[in-house]
Specification:
EC 2.3.1.225, elongated, 43% helix
Amino acid sequence: MPTSVSPYKRDFTVCGWRHGHARMKSTAHRTRDIERQAGYLKPEHCAPPPPRSGADTMWFIRDGCGIVCGVITWFLVFYAEFVVVFVLLLPAKNMAYSLFNGLIFSTLAFLALASHAKAMCTDPGAVPKGNATKEFIESLQLKPGQVVYKCPKCCSIKPDRAHHCSVCKRCIKKMDHHCPWVNNCVGENNQKYFVLFTMYIALISFHALIMAAFHFVFCFDQDWTKCSYFSPPATVILLILLCFEGLLFLIFTAVMFGTQVHSICSDETGIEQLKKEERRWAKKSKWMNMKVVFGHPLSISWLNPFVVPDHGKADVYQYIV
């Protein structure tokens, strides 16, 4: 009988509700407490999930820490935009230089915020709450000996590779991690937007640092009153804060971007890597894994946060593990 190595507590049952298959022996379960009786699933205690109405169609996590982190993210991007425009570009004598760099920076900043909003307000792949009903399990048409798992926290039958998030209070398909900066989990439905968010933040951070360096070089031997609309002390403070912000977020988002790309190419989420879970899914090429996340086929839409990726031939998640 196949086993699962998720670190999260889960209940299980077998097809036909037989108790004969309830005993499982595996060293992989040492970090998890599995109930020994299939009847513990108790589907009669799970009410069907309520139908979604128009008022709650938008996904948004009401987590205080995540909301604060999201607001800080937008504030820092707007701060960088303010300093770049009013300190680095508008006082510059070269109009072409100002227009070119202003257009590039503003476009990247807009794409970064759009990616952040999409990552925050997109359902990452939440399993319906309360679907651990007898009718739903019977509809799976399980064969004798096949096992399904129930999350005792949200009363859901969990697909393979799904994990429960204590912040979102839901089981998330192909959950990578919960990121407070986007106030959401990173899962199969919003990983593209999170990767784009980290990429665009890294790009605008690098761009801001380059422009700040040029500004320091050109204004070092000149009158600082001609290099900024603000006083020299205020200009220096604004630039130092911009450089600190740019360097900090360049390192953070560049590392996160590389980690996410590696996770996508290896088809192994952050949780699966951390817990060293046994690989039970079909191995695909790195290119196919990229297309599963960003869409089929390769196009400019990969870089567009407003385009929902077409997963094409992506494997449908199974409830059998």
